[in-house]
Design a protein that fits this description.
The chain has eleven helices and five strands; from the N terminus they run H-E-E-E-H-H-H-H-H-H-E-E-H-H-H-H. With 361 residues, the protein is mostly helical. A hairpin with a 3-residue loop joins strand 1 and strand 2.
Length: 361
């Protein structure tokens, strides 16, 4: 849009003012401006960061620009344009953020921008975090209550003779375990997220699952855990607590407790079950053809290497053998000479002792 190295020319300045009015600042590396475009409610919702073409911005400036852009994206998600009551709040936050961006990047004050942006995000979290967390917890709790009520109804029907459901539902404690997992999943959110961070205001859960989808996903994992315990593939004993009685008539409370643990540990549960499934697949797979081929190839390589080592010419082999034989003979001779010398030295004091004895007698 402009070609000036540090500051725009009068003609370029005129073009900038036509686009941004008075809402712009020009620094050494960026031009920061707020467009005068009319949105649905007649208010701007974008901040433009235009780099100076002939200068490379330092990493500090680039990182700060990206943080400003991320902050604006979170605000847009929190306060959508279609929601009229939230537009006023967005205008308040947007005006402060735009002014801070113009000061930090448009007036070359990156250190002030870093501190100001952190303070801005902390204030938004303090003002909006509780409301967003409570809304998500209420939504998750209502869905958990609905799903839990359905599981309870099925369990109660399994205890009656209505439509022969008592005989059709073989494992009624499974539904009590599902009831517990719905409760545990609701508790898990508040346990894992005591305080939301600024990016989490827009997306409370990093996996971005809808609350209903999350509950169904944890329920599926809980069914797998029930099958592992019911078939004695896994057995857990903690003090007097034993999962062996899960299928019995007295295992109802245990089923609810195990389901709660599955819900509370929803983040670790997929990793644990994946590890178990990997062990099972390896166990039923045995030795693969690749492993067998690898063993044969190792043998072939060993045989080939042995052949290569033994493939030296006969003349060289005979010479090497004779050299080793001569070395062994010399070594034996040296050993005998050392032994005789030690024996002679050991007998010498005895000979002097006998001679002294004859002189005295």
């Amino acid at each position: 849009m402009y070609k000036a190295k540090n500051h725009p020319t009068p003609h370029e300045r005129k073009l900038i003012e036509e686009t941004y009015g008075d809402n712009w600042s020009h620094g050494d590396y960026f031009l920061v401006g707020v467009k005068l475009e009319q949105t649905k409610h007649g208010r701007p919702r974008a901040i433009d960061f235009c780099p100076v073409p002939t200068k490379k911005a330092p990493d500090t400036y680039v990182a700060l620009m990206l943080r400003f852009d991320q902050t604006l994206s979170v605000l847009r998600t929190l306060f959508p344009e279609e929601d009229a009551p939230s537009v006023k709040k967005f205008d308040e936050y947007f005006g402060r953020l735009a002014e801070l961006a113009r000061t930090a990047l448009g007036q070359d004050q990156p250190h002030l921008g870093v501190l100001g942006l952190q303070t801005f995000q902390d204030e938004v979290v303090m003002r909006e975090g509780g409301r967003i967390k409570n809304n998500y917890a209420v939504k998750l709790g209502l869905l958990a209550a609905v799903f839990g009520a359905l599981a309870t109804v099925v369990f109660l029907l399994s205890k009656t003779s209505y439509l022969n459901l008592k005989d059709a539902i073989t494992y009624p404690n499974l539904f009590l375990m599902l009831l517990g997992c719905f409760l545990g999943t609701w508790l898990s959110f508040s346990i894992r997220k005591p305080v939301l961070t600024f990016p989490e205001l827009a997306v409370p859960e990093e996996d971005q699952l809808h609350p209903a989808v999350r509950l169904l996903f944890v329920a599926g994992l809980t069914v797998v855990v029930f099958l592992l315990l019911a078939t004695d593939v896994v057995k857990v004993t903690i003090g007097s607590f034993d999962t062996g009685a899960l299928l019995g008539s007295s295992g109802g409370m245990k089923a609810i407790l195990i389901g709660c643990f599955c819900g509370i540990g929803e983040k670790a549960l997929p990793r644990v079950l994946s590890k178990r499934s990997d062990q099972f697949v390896v166990a039923i797979g045995g030795h693969s053809e690749k492993d067998e081929g690898g063993g044969d190839s190792a043998k072939d390589e060993g045989g080939d290497s042995a052949k290569e080592k033994g493939a030296s010419p006969p003349g060289k082999t005979g010479a090497a053998s004779s050299a080793r034989s001569e070395a062994a003979v010399h070594h034996g001779a040296d050993h005998r000479e050392k032994t005789e010398a030690i024996s002679t030295a050991s007998h010498a004091p005895n000979a002097h002792h006998h001679a002294d004895s004859h002189k005295k007698s």
